Amino acid sequence: YMKPLRFKPYYKSVVWGGSQIGAFKGESLPSADIGESWEISGYQSHISKVESPEELAGMTLDAVISRYGADLMGSHVYERHGNRFPLILKILDAHRDLSVQVHPNDVAAAEIGEPNGKTEMWYILGTDGDAAIYAGFKSDISHDDLHRHIADGTLMNVIQRYQSAPGDVYFLPAGQVHATGAGNLLLEIQQTSDVTYRLYDYGRLDADGNPRPLHLNEAMRVLSLSGNQKLKLRKADKGDDSKPAEIICDCDYFKASKIEVNGCGEIDNLNDSFMIVFCAEGEVTITDSENHSETLSRGQTILYPATSTLLTIKGSGTLLTFTA
Q: What sign for the dihedral angle of Cα 54, 59, 62, 65?
């Protein structure tokens, strides 16, 4: 029997970060410019360490995988990824606008010696003021026109702008240009990769007064020039008792569901995969088939092994689940 795992988050301070992650979680953070909380990560330089259960505390995620293998990961996931956890879950606080960027797909990533590309999904947890998400071009664009818009500072005019609201879901396949506007607190699920190519950074300077580097050649090689992609998947509705679980995104790399908990319910995990559970609001107690209970409150994350196929849930709130 394998208990669910909680991990110590990795807090990353960045030029565009703020204090919303701490406020959301009800915790004090190490500094006032935290832009990212890596909740679960198998990325080599920031591998998650177990916080509980006690008998595994301090172990790295890849060490736990090598001990439990397919029991934790699920057999098809373990065959595909081995001891490398395939997803990263982060909370992002965009206190200021993030740069306009793009990520390579698996093929382009392999060409530079990376194990995989970076497809991601965003779930909006909270917004402030006139927060917006920028994703995809409004219409098809040529490389020449794109270079011109970057050079004369008008790139934002040709990127699709979405007014952002809590509960929105955005799917950002590798190759799609995107940016998080200021005032968004969001949850990001993504492939295990940290390859980001910056196209545009509003002429901002870093702490030493230098412009932050752009990666135009690399970005031009991997980005999609086609416009009018529907990247906002939905304004995720409140569930009801007949349909408490709603699949909000299903792609080659992950499947995401939203579960409204109001009283008692169940979560099936029949995907032959681990399941990440994140509490987006409220407080929910989750009990596995061995009668082990964990209570998740807002901003908390837990990882259930593939062997936990049925979970009983009780409480009031919103859960998001992710499987591979």
A: negative
The three-state (H, E, C) secondary structure of 129-196, written as one string = CCCEEEEEECCCCCHHHHHHHHHCCCHHHHEEEEECCCCEEEEECCCCCEEECCCEEEEEEEECCCCC
Residue type, 49: K
Give the Å distances, CA to CA, from 116 to 86, 107, 253.
9, 8, 11
Q: Please, which residues bridge with residue 154 across strands?
A: none
Preceding peptide of 213 cis, ω within 30°: no
- pLDDT tens, 68-120? 999 999 999 999 999 999 999 999 999 999 999 999 999 999 999 999 999 99
**148, 198, 212, 221: which one is catalytic?**
198
Which residues, in sequence order, are bridge partners of residue 250? Answer: 255
Give CA 102 to chain center in angstroms.
15
Residues 6+ apart with CB under 8 A from 201: 99, 100, 211, 212, 214
Closest CA to 247 of 265, 271, 230, 229: 271
- Residue pair 185/104 in contact (Cβ under 8 Å)? The answer is no
pTM for this model (two decimals): 0.95
Q: What sign has the CA pseudo-torsion 145, 147, 150, 155?
A: positive
Strands (E), the chain: 6-8, 10-18, 34-40, 49-52, 87-94, 100-102, 120-127, 132-137, 159-163, 168-172, 178-180, 184-191, 197-200, 232-235, 245-250, 255-268, 275-287, 293-297, 301-304, 310-323
In this prediction, residue 204 carries a pLDDT of 84
Q: 42 in helix, strand or coil?
A: coil
65's enclosing H/E stretch is helix 61-68
Nearest to 189 by CA among 303, 312, 26: 303
Give yes or no: 198 in active site.
yes
List beta partners, residue 124: 186
* Residues 278/269, Cβ–Cβ less than 8 Å: no
